[in-house]
Amino acid sequence: MKISEIKPGKVEFQGWIENLRDKKNMQFIVIRDLSGKVQVTVIKAEKPEIAEIFSKATLESTVKIKGEAVANEFVKLGGIEIIPEEVELTSHAEALPIAEDSSIDQRLDYRWVDLRSPSKTLIFQVETTLNQAMRQYAIDHGCIEIHTPTLIGTSSEGGADVFEVKYFDKKAYLIQSPQFYKQMAMCAGFEKVLINTPIFRAEKSHTKQHATEFSGFDIEMSYVNGVEDVMQFEENLLAYAINEVAKKHGEKVKELLNVDIVVPTVPFPRITMKEAYQILRSLNIDIKDGDDFSKEQEVALCDYMEKKNGHQFFFVKEYPTKVRAFYTMAKEDEPEYSKSYDLYFKDVEITSGAQREHRPDVLKKQIEERGIDTTPMTDYINFFKNGCPPHGGFGLGLDRLLMLLLDLPSLKEAMYIFRGPDRLNP
Ligand code: AMO
Question: Exposure winner among 143, 176, 201, 369, fewest CB in 10 A?
Fold first, then answer.
């Protein structure tokens, strides 16, 4: 049974030795599992063989206990104590290699110990609910969930930040995005898809929001009339999922992490890139038309938008075509700007989205214009030669969303196991 289910009567449970006080005549042991803690009381004269086991046990060893739970108003932990009848030590713990005040990098070396606390477990309970609710919303709104490979024969986003792997006698790459596969699903008539997949980026960035491997949540949808359809889908999905997190974990998150989960109202504020340029210039920040944001410009814009709208999210849409990936559709009336967007949460970009160029001849031209060799892209371009509806979608970084939702200092805390330029272990 779980410790939280213990009531007076016969009990059998397992857990970790969290605390052990070995007195002259008695032992008081606190046992913990994920659901709670309970005190075990041993009267040495009555149970010498059990007292012997506990006298040799170390903190954080695990035990299996059979016994009698009895009410005792003097016991602080729930007014119940366990009088053990049988005790088996199921593992022995060596002295712990880290403490609460160890640095994050020391803690990551011993992540299995670092994670042993209710506030850390809560992060992953929140992630479970968040991801499940996002999937649920997508499935309820017509998405088919597809499982796509992480090995690919060509770089899927352009750019240099791709990991190369040996693939028998050829080269393969780890996906930087499931972009090609989700677009292929539109060519296959799937209409709407959802993908949860690991994503790899060979970026030597040491920031709070960069990892070399992270969890992507991707959506692609057909028959769109523009990027607005995609943005609406995303804002509704996020509002739904964050509301589910608030309902299920809001109180615990406040208690253990001192964070308020704010359920965002829809629609999220939106600005165009041209408006963003004007805002930045009004703040005396120099930015030229056609430029992408620097990190400082992003932070200044996020700060301005949050103060102006009292909303933690906002979209920036219609980026200059040249700063976006080759698959992005340009605006018909103004081709130097594109049908694209990014979504910001607090001060970080959490999503890129766009309507895609689905006409194979235009797509090929766009790839060439960016100086990318079209030969390895042949299969990708071929997807669109047998009919393909107008479509768009987005890619969201689940780890970034979780980090920001819980105000965690970096992805190192938000990811179960962090992968960065200097970290491949454990
Ligand atoms: P983009 O490259 O913007 O777009 O990536 C989408 C989202 O992935 C997250 N992200 C990261 N998270 C952690 N560490 C990183 N190094 C990292 N890089 C990106 C961010 C980002 O917004 N194919 C397009 C999406 C699309 O258009 O559908 C793409 O990959 O949250």
Answer: 369
Distance between CA 260 and CA 323 in Å, rounded? 35
**pTM of the entire structure?**
0.96
Ligand 1 centroid to 102 CA: how many Å? 31
For 77, list phi and psi in degrees, rounded to 5: -75, 85
CA–CA separation, 27 and 220 (whole Å): 60
Kind and range of the H or E run holding 411: helix 411-414
Residue bearing the CA closest to ligand 1, atom 9: 397
Q: How far is CA 88 from the centre of its chain?
A: 38
Pair of tokens at residue 386: 């047998």
Burial 48-76 (b: 16+ CB within 10 A, else e): eebbebbeebeebbbbebebebeeeeebe
Ligand 1 atom with minimal separation from the 176 CA: 30
d(CA 332, CA 344): 26
Phi and psi for 276 in degrees, rounded to 5?
-60, -40
Ligand 1, pocket residues at CB < 6 Å: 157, 177, 179, 201, 203, 210-211, 214, 216, 218, 349-354, 393-397, 399-400
The CA-atom distances, in angstroms, between 80 and each of 29, 45, 75 are: 13, 21, 6
Q: What is the per-residue pLDDT across 356-396, written as a single tens digit (0 to 9) for each?
A: 999 999 999 999 999 999 998 999 999 999 999 999 999 99
Rounded Cα–Cα distance for residues 64 and 80 (Å):
18
- Sign of dihedral through CA atoms 373, 375, 376, 381? positive
100-139 as b/e, with b when 16 or more CB fall inside 10 Å?
eebeeeebbbebebbeeeeebebbebbbebbbebbbebbe
CB-CB neighbours of 228 under 10 Å: 17
